[in-house]
Amino acid sequence: MTAFGKLIRTTAFRLTLVYLLLFALFAASLLGYFAWNTRRLITEQITTTVNAEISEVTNIYDHRGLRGLVFTIENRALRPGANLYLVTTPTGQAIAGNVGSLMPGVMASSGWSETAYRRLDEQDTAAHRALVHVTQLSGDFRLLIGRDLEERRRLFGIVAQAAQWSLLVVVILGIGGGIFVARRVLQRIDAMTGTAQRIMAGDLSGRLPVGRSGDELDRLAENLNAMLERIEALMMGLKEVSDNIAHDLKTPLTRLRNRAEEALAKSGCEADYRAALERTIEESDGLIRTFNALLMIARAESGQARGNMDDFDAADVASGIHELYEPLAEDDGVTLRLKTAPAPLHGNRELISQALANLVENAIKYGKPTARQQPQGSVVSLETKQILIEARREGDQVLISVTDHGPGISEVDRKHAVERFVRLDSSRSLPGSGLGLSLASAVATLHGGELRLDDARSGLIATLTIPARVAAGDRVPGQTQDATQKVA
Ligand SMILES: Nc1ncnc2c1ncn2[C@@H]1O[C@H](COP(=O)(O)OP(=O)(O)OP(=O)(O)O)[C@@H](O)[C@H]1O
Ligand SMILES: [Mg+2]
User: 393 by DSSP, 3-state: which?
Assistant: First the structure.
């Protein structure tokens, strides 16, 4: 398609044409109305003055007879101006006035008519037009009084010319403006198309150009850019996941395979085989757990889990997790405390429970005071052997946190720790796949919130900060109920 063809096909250009047509119609009707009304006014003016003159002249005729009439008419005919007079005898002979010739039949019929005429003193010039009135006088004499219509014609001419010019200007400006606007729009659309093609060709980092005017195209470009950003992030995530899976799952799978091979090669007794099989099952369970965690993260990150959201109280989730992990914590020699206040949420209950469970598991696993924190011989204080699960509402946020008194995570490692498959050096001796915090973080993001890792007085405080559900019937954050007593 040629550039011009593209131009006239744009919505901007077509819209301009429509507006142009509407404007031209409007201008034409305005001018038409003006012209018609002026013409009516001039005609009205002529008829009133002519009528007045007729009654004046017939009065003179009635009182002073034909001589008076002829005298008056001759007098008036001499005055300069657009006035026309003619008096004819019953045989049709002109006896007074300034009209030289008329269209045939005008004098024969009484009343108003428009006619072409020539003045008596200008035989050769072209005929003019006039509005005349013929009156039948007594004795079959006829009197014509009229006005030249030149003024009306000139005025009409001016209006017609104005209409032509304004139409021309409107058309030129309209088409010029249309081309200008359409070209600008087209340039921007072409730039967008170019970027889109680059992105389709595989360069996901491409972004649509955003102007400074903040118009609808800019807003569209901004939104599309936000979408591209999200797509890029998802693609990167996907790539990262596949890389991670390839790297991190290869090791346990290889180990599994080697163990099986080793067991076969040894050709031991049934007990050996049994032990090898049991280890294989254990290892496989670990792998399945890792896969499940990965799937859950993927579900949270893709936003798929959004379909499964309902209203609930985070305090209930916290007490559920507290109940579930209490025996485990006790076996480990720590006390799990619970502190909740109403914390209304709208979200995926299953995912939030899993995220909190991951934080609690971490606190139990890594949150024990280290030897450095508790020098030999010192008595381990009761507080340091406690893990606190809290859920409450703070302003328009719901905070679900787990506080422990272990070594914590150093400032530099915090960002790193939430990445997939990342396990800090200090905890490599403990079982785990490095996905717990990733899932917690993905779940927080899914709900429009975040996972924060902060220093507790000693240890770590991991907090899920999620926007609270706002509904008319929401309870205002109430009294904190401390469940410590229940635990003790
Ligand atoms: N409460 C904590 N105190 C100290 N370090 C922690 C704590 N929680 C997490 N970490 C560190 O962050 C790392 C990442 O934690 P994450 O929960 O993601 O993985 P994991 O616990 O190692 O494995 P998984 O949770 O998948 O079984 C841990 O390996 C640990 O080094
Ligand atoms: Mg963990």
Answer: strand
437 alpha carbon – ligand 2 mean position (Å)? 6
Record the tokens describing residue 238, joined without a space.
Answer: 């996907």
423: Cβ below 6 Å to ligand 1?
yes
- Closest Cα to atom 13 of ligand 1: 423
What ligand has the least distance to the C-alpha of 366? 1
Helix (H, G, I), strand (E, B) or coil at 208: coil
Mutate to test the pocket of ligand 1, among 287, 427, 457 (most ligand atoms within 8 A of CB): 427
pLDDT per residue as tens digits for the range 346-381: 999 999 999 999 999 999 999 887 766 655 555 556
Task: Tell me the ligand closest to 427's alpha carbon.
Answer: 1
Query: What's the pLDDT score for residue 371?
Result: 62
Say if residue 201's pLDDT is above 80. Answer: yes
Q: Of 377, 397, 412, which Cα lies nearest the Cα of 450? A: 397
- Ranges of beta strands (E only) in 223-340 are 310-313, 335-340
Instruction: Name the average pLDDT for the chain.
Output: 86
Pocket flag, ligand 1, residue 344 (CB < 6 Å): no
Could you tell me the strand order of the sheet in which 128-136 lies? Answer: 94-97, 83-88, 142-148, 128-136, 111-119, 99-102
Task: Give tens-digit pLDDT for 413-452.
Answer: 999 899 888 899 888 888 888 999 999 999 999 999 999 9
Q: Is 60 exceeded by the pLDDT of residue 250?
A: yes
C-beta of 449 in contact with ligand 1 (< 6 A): no
For residue 298, what are the contacts with CB-CB under 8 A and spacing of at least 6?
241
Question: 170 versus 365: which is more confidently predicted?
Answer: 365
403 touches ligand 1 (CB under 6 Å): no
Q: Which amino acid is at 192?
A: M
Ligand 1: which atom is nearest the Cα of residue 439? 18
Is the CB of 440 within 6 Å of ligand 1? Answer: no
pLDDT per residue over 274-286, tens digit each?
A: 888 998 999 899 8
Distance 396 CA to ligand 2 centre (A): 28
Q: Please answer whether residues 419 and 364 qualify as being in contact, where contact means their C-beta atoms are separated by less than 8 angstroms.
A: no
Does 13 have pLDDT greater than 90?
no
Q: Looking at ligand 1, which residue's alpha carbon is closest to its atom 20?
A: 434
Instruction: Considering only the C-alpha atoms of the chain, give the largest distance between any 2 of them, rounded to a whole number of Å.
Output: 160
Q: Mean pLDDT across the stretch 373-398?
A: 78
Please state which of the ranges 56-60, 107-111, 459-463 shows the lowest mean pLDDT. Answer: 107-111
Would you say the CB of residue 409 lies under 6 angstroms from ligand 1? yes
Closest ligand to C-alpha of residue 363 is: 1
Ligand nearest to the Cα of 368, by number: 1
Interatomic CA distance for residues 453 and 412, integer angstroms: 11
Cβ-in-10-Å burial (0-12, 13-18, 19+) of 88 comes to buried
